[in-house]
Amino acid sequence: MTKRNYFFDNAKFILMAIVVFGHLLKSYIHESEEIYALYKTIYTFHMPAFILVSGFFAKGFYKKGYLSKITKKLILPYLIFQTIYTVFYYFLYSKSDFKMDLLDPQWAMWFLISLFCWNLMLLVFAKLKPALGIGIAVLAALLIGYADTVSNYLSLSRTFVFFPMYLIGYHLSKEQIKKLFSVKWRITAFVIITVVFAESYLHPDISDKWLLGSKPYAELGNPDILSMFTRLGVYTVSMIMVFSFLAFVPRGKHFFSRWGAQTLYVYLLHGFFVRIFRESRIHTYFTSTESFIMLAGFALLITILLSSQIIESLAQPIIELKISKFKKLFYTVLKRLKAIKSRSQSHSSSLR
């Protein structure tokens, strides 16, 4: 039996909590330069790191049945949750007309389509030498920005923009990752994170939209030759930040390690909490540094809740299209109810 690598479980759980926090934090980015800087700092690495880790685990894509498995795991949940979120937004925002487009991803659903496409793209890029494949992927990402028609539709823009990070993760080895844990690199990583935050604070005019990867250059400013180099600069910062973050991820088994296996559940479900939070009065109570620490705690609680076994059991039928864990939960609850009833009857009999 292969020994489980808890480093990646820990990384996925921590990253998922940061993703939730980043989405909650978006409501406040125009209220404070410090918050906007924190928001941009988070966005330099949280999804790129997730994508890199996903690429690392795609090494078995050539195995028989992998593509059919990944199709079932990604496309079916996408179709289901694209529909659910469309209905949810219709009622939440009291829209006047109901419009559903399965090819225009709702909010965070883009990741599922892009992840599916990245697996398909590996069929070609995995055959190339790492440096050549990554070079072509980066060049395609830089050039795609000039195509005004490539944006959020079918998540095409993000698919091209973030594919180099997925491909780097695919080619990354465990030995290379181990080099991140040296004291020297950790000190360097801390300095890098501090500098990136400071730069984000000192230059608030740099738009966070460059970090999203969803827009063509025409929507980010004047599409000239500098646009390509700006995106290349964003790539460089993001990759350095990804490896800086990974340097601080615990390697051993911890109480939260098992929750790292449930990040898909958190990713698909946390949008309901975030959208309700943004539309409610609750978000008005977060106005100070102390309250934003509480907001981070709130994000952590959401992540833990949605990573729990009970949520996994309840949501399994619509996320994995299975009922094994749901049935187990049902029979466990039924068994406990029978036990409670039996004890109650025994207690009643003893009082007679």
Polypeptide structure, described:
The chain folds into two domains: 6-321, no CATH class; 322-352. It contains 15 helices and no strands. It has helices spanning 6-25, 33-43, 46-56, 66-92, 110-125, 130-144, 156-171, 174-178, 183-202, 209-212, 225-246, 263-279, 289-307, 309-319, 324-351. The chain starts with 5 loop residues before the first helix and ends with a helix.
Number of strands: 0
Question: What about the largest sheet?
Answer: none
Judging from the principal axes of the Cα atoms, what is the shape?
globular
Report the total helices. 15
Please give the structural blueprint.
Blueprint: H1 6-25, H2 33-43, H3 46-56, H4 66-92, H5 110-125, H6 130-144, H7 156-171, H8 174-178, H9 183-202, H10 209-212, H11 225-246, H12 263-279, H13 289-307, H14 309-319, H15 324-351
Helix pairs in contact: 1-2, 1-3, 1-12, 1-13, 2-9, 3-7, 3-11, 4-5, 4-12, 5-7, 6-7, 9-11, 12-13, 14-15
Task: Give structural attributes.
globular; 2 domains; mainly alpha; 352 residues; 69% helix; 15 helices
Question: What's a concise summary of this model?
Answer:
Helices cover 69% and strands 0% of the residues. The protein is mainly alpha-helical.
